[in-house]
Amino acid sequence: MSERVETNELEDLLVSYAAGSLPLPAHVLIAAHLEMNPERQRFVGAIETLSGDALLDQTPVDLFDGDARLRMIVGKPPLPPTPPHDDPVFPRALHAFAGFSSNEIPWRTKLPGLKEYSFGEIDGCETALLWARAGRAMPDHTHEGREFTLVLSGSFSDNRGRFERGDISIANETLDHRPVAGEDGPCLCLSVIEGKLRLTGSLFRKLGDIIGT
């Protein structure tokens, strides 16, 4: 598995995940990543333990109308049972978020050799599943905000290196890149974008990448 992302960027994401401060799509992306990377689960568990210890050191604060809050919690209906999970591509967190399995994705063709299923904008993030045929290049682009990409199957490469199943690519306005799906097969990714993409590169290469040559 590739380790091309900056360690501090990924650790910041994991800390934000443990604190519950990520937008929903980014939270789902990290939860799916953790399912595929058990060693990172231990890192997040350690963060949560430290956070719990810090809370124990805080002075207790009385709840306003605590009895009413307790009645509200107890009176809530139980959560539905977790459905069985046997999807070889979608981690459980992504399966629950999407509401369908990896063989049921309602794709729409975006460009030749490139398909997309968009979840739309959620918590200020454009969220989508992307599928690219082997060798398919995305147009050169940079970002107005952060872009998180989790590889679900296959691989892609850019000027930083190769990303494989379970890897996260973290991009921001300092990166100008041209991701290319691996030649060994199609690449399927979950993409969460906090800002917009801006195409870069020459007009000739833009046209070639758009039509998929």
Description:
The protein starts with 6 loop residues before the first helix and ends with a helix. By secondary structure, the chain is an alpha+beta fold. It has 6 helices and 11 strands. Helix 1 crosses helix 3 and helix 2 runs antiparallel to helix 5. A hairpin with a 2-residue loop joins strand 6 and strand 7. It is globular and about 65 Å long. The N terminus is likely disordered. The protein has a single domain, classed as Jelly Rolls (Sandwich), CATH 2.60.120.10. Strands 1-2-3-10-5-8 form a 6-stranded antiparallel sheet, with helices on one face. Strands 7-6-9 form a 3-stranded antiparallel sheet, with no helix packed on it.
Task: Break the fold down into its secondary structure elements and pairings.
Layout lengths: L6 H13 L4 H13 L1 H19 L9 H10 L16 H7 L9 E4 L2 E9 L2 E8 L8 E3 L3 E7 L1 E4 L2 E4 L3 E4 L8 E2 L5 E7 L3 E3 L3 H9 L2
Antiparallel strand pairs: 1-2, 2-3, 3-10, 4-11, 5-8, 5-10, 6-7, 6-9
If you compute it from the alpha carbons, what radius of gyration comes out, rounded to the nearest whole angstrom? 20 Å
Distance between the termini: 29 Å
CATH-derived topology: Jelly Rolls
**Biggest β-sheet: count, sense, barrel?**
6 strands, antiparallel
Mean pLDDT: 83
% residues in beta strands: 25-35%
Class inferred from helices and paired strands: alpha+beta
Q: Any idea of the CATH class?
A: Mainly Beta
Q: Overall 3D geometry? A: globular
